[in-house]
Amino acid sequence: MGFRKDFLWGGATAANQCEGGVNQGKRGLANVDLMPLGKDRYLVGTGKKKMYDFDQEHFYPALTAIDFYHHYQSDIALFAQMGFKTFRLSIAWTRIFPQGDESEPNEEGLQFYENIFKECHKYGIEPLVTINHFDCPMHLVKTIGGWRSRKMIHYFYKLCKVLFTRYKGLVKYWITFNEINMILHFPFVAAGLCFEKGENEIQAMITCVHHQLVASAMVTKLAHEVDEKNQIGCMLAAGSYYPETCKPEDYWQAICDNREVYMFADVQARGYYPSYALKWIKKRKANIPFEKGDQEILMKNTVDFVSFSYYSSRVSSSDLSKGKQSESNIFASAKNPYLKESDWGWAIDPLGFRSTINELYDRYQKPLFVVENGLGASDVVEEDGTIHDEYRIDYLRQHIQAMKDAVEEDGVDLIGYTTWGCIDLISNGTGEVQKRYGFIYVDRDNLGKGTYQRKKKDSFEWYKKVIESNGENLD
């Protein structure tokens, strides 16, 4: 017995990484629009450098991205050719409420997403919508400090009420916040948070994430009230930590690191802050800004499913001294000598994927949805226009097999699988397009130059066969 018959195969994107069209359709400015290419990207993303407006010294890749804004019909047609059952995308908040605090939504933005959802349904593709994928109106960042302010709960709730009402019958799978644990690693991106000199940064992050957790619970309740068919999920950046050695200090460090990954999803899936999280926060001289009714809201409105991203496993060491650390993503990790790494220093670990899936299922006992998994690599277009990305096929083949083992051998309840960047897009971590994930190549370089023409890679036909066989044919 393999994957369920109605298993949702597909691909995933995010508005800020693929849409472009930033100045069109009355869209407002968002925090992620201001993430520059180059060395300052990390400083801006981590809230260490304020960039509240564009300047002449930097290039801002999100402004055009891959121009999905003008290509969505032909792109969705390509997804349909692969046989997608679902397409994960996100809503750009500033397309719906350009400033974030208007009394009425922007009809052009609402119509844009309605058109996308109808285009998906034309091909039998179920939209999977991330309401907030690293997206905060800059007006709210400048005026109230983004998610530092409890007022954000009201504005987010208002956005969701509009979305749930307008798209009732068009969307039933929703994710409230993308990678909720990224607040601890990329706070400006995750919450519009910039730090003030000398402040307790942990306190600022905990304040922001508490507001997001309360907002998530409130809109989970709202979604079920608007349409009982709605399924609401949380989402975390997953990837289990291994201890570097069997030294007890390394094993304990792995427990601590894994807890930081799960801490906020625990609240969304279980309904309360676990005791270790309360201790973790207190130890850092911070506190959770509870208000009356928060704990009840969190407890009564847990999510229907748990979704997550997985790219690689990580390694915990009690001694992360110089030279031992991996280049991998935004998470600190010691190098794993047993694993090969991608061009961008990410450990390739399909068995780690199976382990992560099992850990999550054991922990939450709720249906799981893999909503990001994939390989970022530099692709070469041959003289005849073909793109041979056997390395991507190999990565995905191994990871899908590991996922299948988790279902068949371990009994995990899995709803679906969407590969990250099913079409090439902007990397969140680096801002590059050259770090390509897609089955579909987009002719655009890191500085936005190119024809934006789409080309199928070898992986396109391979994934089509995988979907047709419901994961049985991985050759």
CATH fold type = TIM Barrel
N-to-C CA distance:
19 Å
Strand content: 5-15%
CATH hierarchy, class: Alpha Beta
Task: Tell me what the structure shows.
The protein is of the alpha/beta class. It has one domain (8-468): TIM Barrel. 39% of the residues lie in helices and 12% in strands. The protein contains 15 helices and 12 strands. The strands form 3 sheets. An 8-stranded parallel barrel has the order 1-2-3-4-5-7-9-10, surrounded by 4 helices. Strands 6-8 form a two-stranded parallel sheet. The longest helix is centred in the middle third of the chain and has 26 residues, at 201-226. It is globular and about 60 Å long. The model has no long low-confidence stretch (mean pLDDT 96).
